[in-house]
Structure formats: structure tokens, C-alpha cells
Amino acid sequence: MSTNSHSTGYDAIVIGGGHNGLIAGAYLARAGLRTIVLEARDDLGGAARTEQPFGPDFKVTALSYVMSLMPPTVQKDLDLARHGYNVIPMGPSYFAFPDGRSLTLEVGDDADRREIAKFSEPDAANYAAYWAWLQGVGDVLAPLLLTTPPKLASKRPRDLIEQLRLVWGLRGLDVRTTAEATRLFTMSVTDVLDRWFESPQVKGALAINGIIGTWAGPDEPGTAYVMMHHTIGDIGDGQMGSWGFPVGGMGAVSAACASAARSFGCEIRTNAAVDRITTRNGRVTGVVLRGGEELRASTVMAATHPQITFLRQLDRNELPDDFVRDLEAWRSRSGVVKVNVALSELPDFIADPGTEQQPRHTGAIELCHSIEYLERAFVDAREGRASAKPFADCVIPSTLDRTIAPEGCHVMSMYCQWVPHTWADEPDSAELSAFADRVVDGFTELAPNFKQSILHRQVIGPHEMQSEYGLIGGNIFHGELSTDQLFHMRPAPGYADFTTPIEGLYQCSSATHGGGGVTGIPALLATRRVLRDRQRSMMKSKFGRGR
Ligand SMILES: Cc1cc2nc3c(=O)[nH]c(=O)nc-3n(C[C@H](O)[C@H](O)[C@H](O)COP(=O)(O)OP(=O)(O)OC[C@H]3O[C@@H](n4cnc5c(N)ncnc54)[C@H](O)[C@@H]3O)c2cc1C
Predict the structure, then answer these.
(1) Is 277 helix (H, G, I), strand (E, B) or coil?
(2) Which end of the chain is more exposed for a tag (fewer CB within 10 A), N or C?
(3) Sequence-distant (≥ 6) Cβ neighbours of residue 375 within 8 angstroms
(4) Is the CATH code 3.50.50.60 the one for domain 10-50+72-82+247-330+473-546?
């Protein structure tokens, strides 16, 4: 299928060596295209990375920390297991509270109900019905994650067919499920949970998925959808909420994607920052690297934040004005801080004493006293201060993956919210450090041995995320998952089908449909689109010649 490539050029250039760029490179090379992936940094993986900031003994998942949403199709197509992809299902979610109580939740089983009854009998009674409701809406919405959004309201025949296909795909909806889906897209997670539960602790536990990576507290409309996005879990098997630790950290996922790409003949270059995307007469012709080297290709796939691609690497006058305005208005805030630590022993919780490894150490461990606690933490940041009492979603992957810490020691990933999102541009390192101290103090209130068990600490704030890892504005998903930035709007109306206003230029970062998260879905759908377009254009030129 290799066509028209100049001897110094390629069929396809992928910009960005995060997991989406690597998966796109793999699919394009697998289809026979002479493909190169260009990564600005000296390492691969983007936000799916393993670092060794504490020396060679410890491996740290510096940014993202758990896998869930990568569809089995991607894993099978790229034979990722053969390239080292191995995800260990994580343990239950554990919540310890300052009053000495704790709550341990798996996913909607009987043991959960007994745990919840410690806080509220009515909540325990409602729990199964709540999960059934969530599953019902999830069953309808999950397939949409793997559907390329059509150009809604376009009257072009091909677009009309795609719109009809979408409507047909939603034929499982009835009046009731449509209403529930509408609620999910428009309500706050607080309002949704208030319909089912009364205990502030239980509601806090169930609200967390609604605020992960979001510049919004649980009271903000739209957070109910974020909760569903993170709850859908393993969409391929239709199983909700199953998350896991990749052996070797998140960087091992990227390494597997890179190895798969190379096995199909894809070239990968690091220290290769793209400066400009070149075009002629509205068609992409290649890229120019920082330093001036030029590479040519008739297909370019941008796997970088869309404000990098469209506002920095192209001239605005090459793009429609309304598209530029949409991209300028793209909201990309989070206020997330990552605190990674190495530990000499496991946390010894007041609620459940003991440093011997127990199931509670092997899953998510939450610093979240209640749903009001979460809202307060956000309100602080919205008012311009880092949370006085931060929220943290913590995991200790070394409890299940012994390849990442020496015997007797552990690594812990503390994903924390919120600091002011403006810190992406105006960092405050003293306040960032004080925020990290408060996270540690908050955890030590629940597990008194925690602070003294810390051997090393790494703190990554919004500024580092933006300047070192290309996460503009510090948003962990290249763009907020608010309802006005989803599906046919992601990242701009008219261009959610992975095309762009420039012919031959495509996009597949987390800011496109199927992202964010380490899902690979944008790369899967975008490369399908590239291959379809190439096939169509080959047919067209053949047909043209035939006449
Ligand atoms: C703190 C944090 C925690 C998270 N936790 C989770 C989690 O637990 N689970 C989960 O599923 N998701 C999580 N996420 C989200 C997830 O990591 C991202 O959505 C995903 O990794 C983004 O992948 P990507 O390939 O689209 O982009 P990226 O990983 O951002 O890759 C883009 C790449 O492009 C490169 N680049 C930028 N500019 C240029 C240029 N000019 N030329 C060449 N290359 C360039 C960058 O260096 C980068 O390597 C988290 C993210 C963060 C930040």
C-alpha cells in the first residue's frame, strides 16, 4: 500500500510519542505505510511513563498510574501482550476516615453492601439498584466511546449516512434510558448521588470518579458524566470499573506500544521536536523539525495537544476563523498535582492497623473524608488558593508489582487535586511544596506512620505538566471532559472525526473522541479514518484513469 513516497519522505508522519502517537504509528505501519513517529523529548510515553527520580531501585509512574479503558481490540491487533503489556487487576478501594472508621469497596458486590451499612442502612439497601442504573446507562454509552462522532447537522450525503448510523446504534434507548442519559450528561455528581444516598462518606467515595482530572467540584453540572467515563472500565468486555497496574509502571504500556510499532516497521525518533507542519494549497506536505530538518509525507497525524498543533505549528490564516476561535476557547485546566513517594513500609491505618500487606493496600486508597470535603477542596482552588485539605487518589502498585521497588520498600503514587489552574503559567513552587506537605499530613492523620516512612518524594505540578510534558494548561486529558467538549465537539465541532481543516492532516491526541486516558481509542479510530481516506483516494484516481 506504499504510495507516492519520495525517497527521503514517508507515507505517514506521526507527531508525538505518547501512547496515542505510538499506537497510531503501529496501526499505520501495520497497514504497510512507511511511517515515522517524532517525539520532542528524549524518551517516549508522554503522560504514560515510568521514571526513576529516586535512583535505579525505584520505578515511579510519574503521571498516569492505572490502566482501564484500552479496548481489547487494540491489545489484540498490536499483540501488546507479546511486547510486554501485562496489567494486574488492582485491589478494592479503601477509604479511611479521621473518626477511625473505614469503608472498603469492590464493585457492587454483597461485601460492599455490608461495608456501606456501617454508614447507612438505607444507602446499603439502595446500592445494588444504583449499580444496576449505572450499568444500564453505561451499556448504552460505552459503545459510543468506540464510535467515530459524525458531523452533526451536516447535510453532505456521506455525513447524513454517518448520522443515521449513529441513530441506529442508539436504537437500544427508550424514553426512560434517554432521560437517564440526559441526566448523566447534565447533572452534577452530587445531585445524582443525592437521589440514591444520604451518607456523606458514601457519597464522597462514589463521587471521586466524577472529579478526576476535572476543574470542577462534585457540585458542578456535568461531573456526573465524568463519573461514568471513569466507571465504564473495561469496555471491551462490558465489565465496569476494572482497573489495574501495568507491570513495570505505565511506561511499560508505552514501551509495549513502541515495540509493537517497531515490529511493523515503524521508525521512532526521540529528540525530534516538530516546529512547523508544512502545507501547500490546503494540503499537508510534511513537517519541519526544530533545527530545520524537513520531512515529507502526504499523511500527518498529530498526537499532541490541539493548541500545539493548530495554534503553534500552523499559520492561523491557513485555518477557518471559527475553527481557530474554537481551539483558542478550548478549556484545558485541571489543577492536578502528582506527588510520588518511596516508602520504607506500608501505611498503618488507625481504622485497620498493621503494616503487613492486606487487600486495602493493593487498590485505590483515598484521602476523601466526604463529598463536602471534595467540594471544599475545589472551592479553595477556584478562589485562587491551593486546597487547605486536598483530595488524593493514591495507589501503591508495588504491592502487586514487585519489579518496581526493592524488597521491603514500596512506591506510592498520590494523585492530588486541586491547586489553582493558573499555576500552569504562573508557578508557585513554595506553595506547591506546602500543598504536597498538606497531602502528606492529611494521609498521616489516617495512617500515623506515613510521614516517617517516606524515603523520597517527587512533586509535579501544573507548570511542570505543561512545560515538560506538553500538557497545556496542566489538563491531564489535553482538554476538560466537560459536556461541551465531548463527542462531536471534541476538540472542535465539525472535526471530531479525526480530520482537520487541512487535507491529509489528522489528529488523535487525548483531546479527540475516546480520550482522555490511556485508552488508545483516538489512535485506533483516527488510523481507521486515514486508511479509509487513502483507499478512497486510490479508488478515485484508479477510476479517474479508467475513464
Ligand atoms: C497526573 C496524571 C494522571 C493521570 N492518570 C491517569 C490514569 O491513571 N489512567 C489513565 O487512563 N489516564 C490517566 N491520565 C491521562 C492520560 O495519561 C493521558 O490522557 C494520556 O496519557 C495522553 O496520551 P496522548 O498520547 O494522547 O498524549 P501525551 O501522552 O501527552 O503525548 C503527547 C506527546 O507529544 C510530545 N510532543 C509535544 N509537542 C511535540 C512536538 N512539537 N513535537 C514532537 N512531539 C511533541 C510530548 O512530549 C508527548 O510525549 C493521567 C494524566 C496525568 C497528567
Answers:
(1) strand
(2) C
(3) 190, 217, 218, 219
(4) yes
Ligand 1 atom closest to 516 (CA):
19
Burial 462-477 (b: 16+ CB within 10 A, else e): bbbbbeebbbbbbbbb
pLDDT in tens, 5-32: 443 699 999 999 999 999 999 999 999 9
C-alpha grid cell for residue 223?
Answer: 461531573
Q: At what angle do helices 250-263 and 19-30 cross, to 10 degrees?
A: 20
Helical packing angle, 223-231 and 121-145, nearest 10°? 80
CA distance 35 to 185: 39
User: How many Cβ atoms are within 10 Å of 249's Cβ, its own excluded?
Assistant: 29
Q: Which of 23, 64, 242, 287 to mutate to test the pocket of ligand 1 (most atoms within 8 A of CB)?
A: 64
- Domain positions in the chain are 10-50+72-82+247-330+473-546
- Residue 468, H or E segment: helix 462-469
Listed residue (90, 143, 54) closest to 393, CA to CA? 90
Is residue 214 in contact with ligand 1, taking CB distance under 6 Å? no
The whole-model pTM stands at: 0.95
Degrees to nearest 5, angle at CA 30 with 24 and 35: 60
pLDDT digits 0-9 by tens, 158-177: 888 888 888 888 887 888 88
- 155 CA from centroid of ligand 1 (Å): 35
For the beta carbon of residue 513, count every other beta carbon within 10 angstroms: 24
